[in-house]
Amino acid sequence: MTPERIEQLAAVLKQKRQELGLSASEVARQTGLDVGTISRIERGQIAAPQAGNLKEIARVLQIPATDIFAIADLLPEGELPTFKPYLRAKYGDLPDDAMAELEASFTRIAKQHGYDGNGPAPGEDEN
């Protein structure tokens, strides 16, 4: 992972944990990981966190694992993240309220056009 991705991952995980009102100790308890591991990931001190650890942290923080994997550059071939990590990667300098506004606009437009959030069925978008 690049230093920028490490920093971005750390910031996303810490912000979401705080939004949920969880301590690092509580995240550790719910994931079965050591609290030191959680803290080091949130401080950007682990350059290559294990995918399994990230998946467990994402589960507790109610973040799609694909979003975390996209930030960490661990996304499996053919998997796509939700819109929010794309916005953060492409427009990371925008303030959080602008990001939230963009995401809300996308969600509203997608719903107007019948998008259910599941994407195409296997083979549906291949030509």
Automatic annotation (TrEMBL):
Pfam family, one: HTH_3
Extent of the signal sequence: none
Domain HTH cro/C1-type: 13-68
Single GO molecular function: DNA binding
Entry-linked InterPro entries: Cro/C1-type_HTH, Lambda_DNA-bd_dom_sf
CDD domains: HTH_XRE (cd00093)
SUPFAM superfamilies tied to this protein: lambda repressor-like DNA-binding domains
Name used for this protein in its record: XRE family transcriptional regulator
Organism of origin: Kribbella sindirgiensis
